[in-house]
Write a structure and sequence with these properties.
GNAT_dom; alpha+beta; GNAT family N-acetyltransferase; Acyl_CoA_acyltransferase; 8 strands; Aminopeptidase; protein-N-terminal-alanine acetyltransferase activity; single chain; transferase
Length: 179
């Protein structure tokens, strides 16, 4: 049975990831359009996905949500690299390719960013994106993130080194941009 919504938007619902979602997660994390964009290098089998669920999703180091649209699983969004003392976290997300370019990622990211600032008290939310992932760069910029820096040749993909772009958004910028 699907767990109830934790955060709801106009079209997107964010809910806790449950064990019943692992097959969906494993299927899509092994798709090259996903693993390449998020920086994975190796395939994930069922046991590894179960371990991810038990150690990461059920742990205290990240905050993870399943992105749902009308009862259909479409991706995940959440926070990792959380530094509570500094009130900072990194946002991460992916959507199954069948659900790209429909605004679901933007709405999910907006919901989780608002949650981070308004409920968790974050002062800063960061993101990193590889140079070839232009859709993710556009998503971040559309909700107010600024590109703050570049780690040159920091990632190796498709036979060559790629730059990693770092983005940031401060709580005050978010609130001022929402008016």
């Amino acid at each position: 049975m699907t767990t109830p919504a934790f955060l709801s938007g106009d079209r997107v619902t964010l809910r806790p990831i449950e064990e019943e979602d692992l097959e969906f997660l494993q299927e899509w994390i092994n798709d090259p359009r996903i693993w390449r964009a998020i920086g994975r290098r190796t395939p994930v089998n069922q046991a590894q996905e179960q371990e991810f669920f038990e150690e990461v999703v059920c742990g205290d180091e990240t905050i993870d949500f399943l992105v749902d649209v009308d009862g259909t699983r479409v991706g995940i969004v959440g926070f990792n690299s959380i530094v509570w003392r500094a009130r900072r976290a990194e946002i991460g997300y992916w959507l199954a390719p069948d659900h790209h370019e429909q605004g679901y990622g933007t709405e999910a990211a907006e919901l989780v960013v608002a949650y981070g600032f308004d409920q968790l008290g974050f002062h800063r939310i960061e993101a990193r994106v590889f140079e070839f992932n232009e859709p993710s760069q556009r998503l971040l910029e559309s909700i107010g993130f600024s590109r703050e820096g570049v780690h040159r040749d920091a990632w190796f993909a498709d036979g060559e080194h790629q730059d990693t772009y770092w983005y940031g958004l401060l709580a005050g910028e978010w609130r001022n941009g929402r008016k």
